[in-house]
Every structure is written in structure tokens, then in C-alpha cells.
Amino acid sequence: MKNDPSSETEIQHWNAIDSLRDVESDTTWDHVFSLRKIGTPSVLEKALAWCTDSDPYRRSLGASVLAQLGNSPFSQGRMLYPDEATAMIRSMIRTERDHEVITSLISAVYFREMPEGVPWLIDLAQHPSEDIRWRVAWALPIPNVRDPETDRSSIDTLLRLIVDPEPLVRDWSTFSLSMTEDDTPQIREALLARLNDSDFHTRSEAAVGLAKRKELRGIEPLVNHLKSDRVGELFVEAAEMYANPDLKSALISLQTWWDVDPDLLERAITACS
Q1: Is residue 2 part of a domain?
Q2: Residue 2: its pLDDT value, please?
Q3: Fewer beta carbons within 10 Å, N or C terminal of the chain?
Q4: Which long-range contacts (C-beta less than 8 Å, at least 24 apart) are formed by 165-169?
């Protein structure tokens, strides 16, 4: 009997990942993406086996495959094997201590939309690694989880991370907080404070978050940012969202030199007219 071609392909992907030994390699991730799309029971079986391997590299990549196992032409974009995948992820977050495996599990909890992973993420917000803390800021709140207590805990954690000493953590926590539908005095004050952040990206995300909430106290600082010599797209997007005439003059001045996205600038000017 001839071997199943799909099985041979799966084996090639797993062997390639195992031989590359590099979680940062684009080639490694090409193989991971392929296995996710194949999504057969044998891919699930192998991923589950790797998740219990003594080798942290294998555990990390096994969890990464489980994180988005599905999205094949036959799954119609739905995640496959939710019970098996979430049971393994749930088991791993209880005991895992390896840095790289934890980063994979953060993504798995996020993409699998596991509310039971929120307390674990909140604990990780105090991790000494900047890499893990920014990933927590990226992952919270978990998508499509609608529980008041879970939402409050996630927001409270982002409010702590938004003043983290590391710029990357502040940037991602500001972005995540900005994108939530929550609107409280604490959130507005936190975003206002970040308008003066030393990190450009954090300032930019804060401007968008305030514009989304129509916080008028954010307009004057935004005018100053628009008049500066470094104007990113997010500042202009924020101006368009505000649609406030006080921003029009600064936007018009940008027409003399800002060529990042002329169409966006024109829309912002129109919105503020």
C-alpha cells in the first residue's frame, strides 16, 4: 500500500521544524502555518505529543500549532479540535516555566479565546521578562470573552502595564486599552498621561484611544504633535476621528511636507472642516 501523500507532507513539515531549531525563523513558521492548515487528526496527535515532550523547543512549537489549528479549506475558518487543544493548553499553563513555551502559550490562550487563561495572563503581567509582559499586554482582553469580572481584571492589568518601565510594554498596553470599548475616568486619565510618553509609538496609540472616546483634553496635545517634526499616521487618524475644527489648521500645515498618506490627510482635513 502506498503512503498517504498528505501524511508524507506532514512528516516533512515536522522534520523540518525539528531540524531548524529556530523559533524566530520565517521558514520554521512557514511549516507551522502549513501544519495548521492541513489540520488532520494526525497533525493534532503529533502536536499533542510535542506539547508533552521534555524538549522545550518541541513544546513551544507544538503549542504554536495547536494555537490556530484549523483554517483549512475544509474547516471554513473554524478552529479545529477545540476540546483536545484547549485541554492541553489548560494543562500546560498550570506547570510551564520555560520562557519560549510561555510565549507560545500566551498566543494559544488568545487565539483559542480561553477565559480560564486570563488569571494566568494576569499573573504573568508581573514577570521579570519584558518579552512576556508585552505579550500579555497584547493578549488582553481575550477576544469574545464577555464576563464583567474577567473584563475588569483585564483592564486593571492593562492600567498597571501602561506605566511599565519598558517602552514596548507601554506601547502594547496602550494599544490594547485604546481598542477596548471600555470608557472610564481611569482609562481616560491613563491615556492622557501617555500622550506625554517618552516613546513615540505609545504617544501615538494614546492619541487614537482618546480620539475614539472623544476626550476633548486630548485635542490640544494632539495639535502640538501634529505641529512637530515627527508625525505618524496614527496622529492623523486620531484627528480624523475627532473631527474637531481646532485640528484643521495643524492638518493643513502638514500638506506642505507630510507625504506618508495624502488621502488620509485629506480625509482628516475634511472631517475637521
Answers
A1: yes
A2: 45
A3: N
A4: 166/130, 166/133, 166/134, 167/197, 167/198, 167/199, 167/201, 167/202, 168/130, 168/134, 169/130, 169/133, 169/134, 169/137
